[in-house]
């Protein structure tokens, strides 16, 4: 039996089934092992892991701990409450914005690649080239956030560093919009998102793309990238304090376990806290050379659990409402037995988005794609509901192929 336990409840003789830290490094070779020393427990606490999953059939039990299923059910109930608040309406349809969003994303990725190359050569960032890209991303988000947010799920391992920066910019701009921040602040935050990983230009590719676990020495090199990026950007003409703050502090955590300054909750600016949430969300949903990305809906639920210690809980909930409880691009199973991809959030109920159905799990065949508005009832194009999110690998389908219907 698998149970969720607080790290303070750990004892030698328990079997760790999952360290539950998909976004952070930890000092263990494996995620599953028997706790054999008090030092192992201390290491779990020191790196900021606050809860783990134990297997009671393979080690000591904690009698009053909830099972994984019970813990997930409690989280799901809390997530449903978060979904009840309205979100901003869209100005254009996904079809109208999609092609523009593809071009904007490609332009932004090319820019980030140039910025990183220039940084490696010791050149300053040319802000006159950055500004129009951020403005284009912002304009696309204002017209229809679903287009760029859906494209954010598509990343190749080779271009991950560049596309991650574009996604963080996109998500941060959408986050600012959903929080109704002013245009000037949103623009500065967007620049911070696009340039936040500039310091990785000083990290050797062999470390960035290493398929196995990093050594302590390699991890220390990676941990220098926020300050390296800050130093690079500080020498660039026209860079403001908000992008500098986001670049330097997007890896800080509210319990003080982050880096580079181990800031606590009271020290991290609100915008840097927003960047931390977005950065982790995008990182854990992406396929990397060393791990398989989580489905977006699952990642949001993990973020919600982690926010009790590592992120601002209120901001995390606002971010969940921003991207949707079932984010655009998420594969979902409907009550009818059909698979669908989420293409647009509903303005008042994030549990009933608009989806494109394309596959029957009953016949295990593709079906004629169609758009279904889950907020509508029988006779109005709806009358179906989401049972759960699904892994595309499980069904061997690519839901993003059906973001647009012919």
Automatic annotation (TrEMBL):
Residues annotated as domain HD-GYP: 139-335
PROSITE patterns documented for this protein: HD_GYP
SMART domains (UniProt xref): HDc
CDD domains tied to this protein: HDc
Gene3D superfamilies: Hypothetical protein af1432
Annotated InterPro entries: DUF3391, HD/PDEase_dom, HD_GYP_dom
One Pfam family hit: DUF3391
Official protein name in the record: HD-GYP domain-containing protein
């Amino acid at each position: 039996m698998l149970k969720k336990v607080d790290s303070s409840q750990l004892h030698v003789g328990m079997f760790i089934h999952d360290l539950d830290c998909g976004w952070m490094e930890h000092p263990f070779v494996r995620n599953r092992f028997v706790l054999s020393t008090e030092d192992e427990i201390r290491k779990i606490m020191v790196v900021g892991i606050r809860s783990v999953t134990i297997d009671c059939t393979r080690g000591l039990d904690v009698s009053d701990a909830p099972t994984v299923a019970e813990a997930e059910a409690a989280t799901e109930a809390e997530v449903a409450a978060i979904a009840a608040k309205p979100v901003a309406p869209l100005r254009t349809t996904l079809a109208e914005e999609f092609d523009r969003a593809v071009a904007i994303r490609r332009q932004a990725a090319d820019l980030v690649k140039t910025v990183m190359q220039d940084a490696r050569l010791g050149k300053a960032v040319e802000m006159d080239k950055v500004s129009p890209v951020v403005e284009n991303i912002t304009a696309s988000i204002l017209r229809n956030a679903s287009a760029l947010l859906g494209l954010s799920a598509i990343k190749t391992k080779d271009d991950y560093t560049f596309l991650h920066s574009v996604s963080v910019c996109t998500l941060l701009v959408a986050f600012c919009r959903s929080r109704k921040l002013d245009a000037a602040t949103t623009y500065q935050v967007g620049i911070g998102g696009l340039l936040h990983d500039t310091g990785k230009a000083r990290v050797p590719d062999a470390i960035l793309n290493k398929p196995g676990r990093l050594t302590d020495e390699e991890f220390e090199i990676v941990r220098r990238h926020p300050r390296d990026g800050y130093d690079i950007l500080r020498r660039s003409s026209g860079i403001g304090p908000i992008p500098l703050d986001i670049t330097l502090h997007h890896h800080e955590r509210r319990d003080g376990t982050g880096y580079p300054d181990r800031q606590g909750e009271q020290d991290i600016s609100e915008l840097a806290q927003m960047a931390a949430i977005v950065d982790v969300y995008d990182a854990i949903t992406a396929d990397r050379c060393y791990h398989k990305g989580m489905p977006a809906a699952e990642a949001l639920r993990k973020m919600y659990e982690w926010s009790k210690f590592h992120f601002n809980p209120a901001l995390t909930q606002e971010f969940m409402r921003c991207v949707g409880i079932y984010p655009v691009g998420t594969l979902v199973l409907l009550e009818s037995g059909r698979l669908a991809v989420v293409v647009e959030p509903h303005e008042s109920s994030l549990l009933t988005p608009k989806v494109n159905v394309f596959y029957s799990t009953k016949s295990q065949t593709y079906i004629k794609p169609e758009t279904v508005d889950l907020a509508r009832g029988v006779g109005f194009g709806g009358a179906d509901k989401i049972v759960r999110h699904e892994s595309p690998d499980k069904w061997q389908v690519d839901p993003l192929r059906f973001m647009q219907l012919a």
